C-alpha cells in the first residue's frame, strides 16, 4: 500500500517509520528536507512538494505542528489541494481546532477528495511503539480504508462522527492533561518546600486513586530537571489556547484550564517552548537540581 506522509517532526517521524517497518510503501515530505534522510535510509521515497506526494499516493497522512501549519500545507502553492482529486484521501492527524479541520475538509471535498481528521493521544514513545489512541472523524469510508495504517500506528481507533468531533475530543483530553501537569508541578514543589522527599511523593501518588502513566513517566525526569522534548511545551500551550476557545464558544467556565494556560505561557516567556511540556514545573520550582 502506497501512503503519503507530510510532517516528520517528533510524531510524524515515529509514525511514518512504523508504517515503513510494517511493509507500507511511504512517500514523505517535510518542510525542512533533511528530516527525510533517516526515513529514506529505511526505504521511504521523498516527494518534492505536498502536491507531488498526494498525486502519487491513494491517501496521504499529515502530522503538523498547529492550525497555521495545517492550513499552509493544504492551501499554499504546491500544497495538498494542488494534488487532490476524486479517489484520493487526506488524513490530518495534527492537533488543530474544529474550525481549521472543517476549512480543510471543505476544500478537499470541493475538489472531489475525501477527508478524515485523526488526532492522537499518546506521545513520542507510544508513537514509536505503535500504541497511539486515534480520534478519527469525517469520511467513514476513508476511515475504513485507513484502518490497516491506524492498526500499525495505534492501539485503539475511535470513529467519532462528523468532522470536528475528533479535533474537539483531542482538545478536551489535552486540556485535562495540561491542567493535571500544573497541579502535579505544584505538588512536587509543595512537597519539596515543606520538607518532604519528592521521590516519596511519587511513590505515594502511584499507589493511590490518582496514579497515572503521566506522573509515573514524567515525575522522575522533572525532579532531575530533564525536559528533553517528547511533547513540546509550545504545542501543549497551543492546545490549551484552542481548548479555551472551545470553552468560550460553548459558554463552559474553565478557570483551572485558564490558569494552566497562563502557566504554559509563562514557561514560553522563560524560553521553554521547545522543551517538554513538563518544563512548566520551572514556573513554580525554586529548588534547582545541581545537574540542570
Ligand atoms: N509530541 C507529542 O507528544 C504529540 C504531539 N501531537 C500533535 O502532533 C502535531 C505534531 O507534533 P510534533 O511532532 O510533536 O511537533 P514537531 O514540532 O516535532 O513537528 C512539527 C512538524 O510541523 C512542521 N511544520 C511546522 N510549521 C510548518 C509550516 N508552516 N509548513 C509546513 N510544515 C510545518 C514541521 O516542519 P519542520 O521540520 O520544517 O519544522 C514538523 O514537521 C502537533 O499538532 C502536536 O500538537 C499530538 C500528540 C502527541
Ligand atoms: O498531544 C499530546 C499528547 C501527549 C500524550 O497524550 O501523552
TrEMBL record:
Keyword Nuclease listed: no
GO molecular function: glyoxylate reductase (NADPH) activity; NAD binding; NADP binding
Residues in 3-hydroxyisobutyrate dehydrogenase-like NAD-binding domain copies: 164-282
Membrane-spanning parts: none
Active-site residues (renumbered): 170
Signal peptide positions (record): none
GO CC list: cytosol
SUPFAM superfamilies associated with the record: 6-phosphogluconate dehydrogenase C-terminal domain-like, NAD(P)-binding Rossmann-fold domains
Record domain 6-phosphogluconate dehydrogenase NADP-binding: where: 2-161
Catalysed reaction, written as an equation: 4-hydroxybutanoate + NADP(+) = succinate semialdehyde + NADPH + H(+); glycolate + NADP(+) = glyoxylate + NADPH + H(+)
Superkingdom of origin: Eukaryota
Alphabetized UniProt keyword annotations: NAD, NADP, Oxidoreductase, Stress response
PANTHER family the UniProt entry points to: GLYOXYLATE_SUCCINIC SEMIALDEHYDE REDUCTASE 1, OXIDOREDUCTASE GLYR1-RELATED
Family under the similarity heading: Belongs to the HIBADH-related family. NP60 subfamily.
Described purpose of this protein according to its UniProt entry: Catalyzes the NADPH-dependent reduction of glyoxylate to glycolate as well as succinic semialdehyde (SSA) to gamma-hydroxybutyrate in vitro. May function in redox homeostasis and play a role in oxidative stress tolerance by detoxifying glyoxylate and SSA generated in glycolate metabolism and GABA metabolism, respectively.
UniProt name for this protein: Glyoxylate/succinic semialdehyde reductase 1
